[in-house]
């Protein structure tokens, strides 16, 4: 059995922790050429969709290679959010009237963002953003406008919006990581829309990371 079953019973361990351990073992064995790309894709689907501890145990039961220190360091660099210490605590204000406003790339995220959107379109892309704070508040006043927020899988998003004849769709699920940034969206939307989407799914991110590890361990992407 590849997952450590000593100590606390596997069924009593946090499910998210066991899933993470199983996925790490899949990536480690794929990156060393022990399983094929097809087997990795198939098993990753099972691990990401698993609903029970036993499914996770079975998907790596025949794998003996465990993540080493080099793998753990690479994983830390890829999956940990980027923080930058700074003294810039100013709020950022965005006013969009009959126009569009986009924030993308490696931008420095303040602790609080105020958005006033009147018949306009606003997009905030946090996929490459550098965070100064773990807790970020976005205050929204939206009239007949659209607001699109894109986040990477390791960022948690909570929406506390008041909607009047409006739509709010939050596709960014919280992972429960205490170190991850949390974005809280509050305010109101009248005859408008708010969409919160993952820039890349966690499965896509795992695939990219697995191919990085193959290169790191001297194997080319198949």
From TrEMBL:
Per the record, the domain of life is Bacteria
Q: Where is the DUF1707 domain?
A: 19-63
Residue span, Cell wall-active antibiotics response LiaF-like C-terminal domain? 111-167
From the record, what ranges are coiled-coil? none
Matching PANTHER family: MEMBRANE PROTEIN, MEMBRANE PROTEIN-RELATED
- Protein name (database record): DUF1707 and DUF2154 domain-containing protein
Record organism: Rheinheimera lutimaris
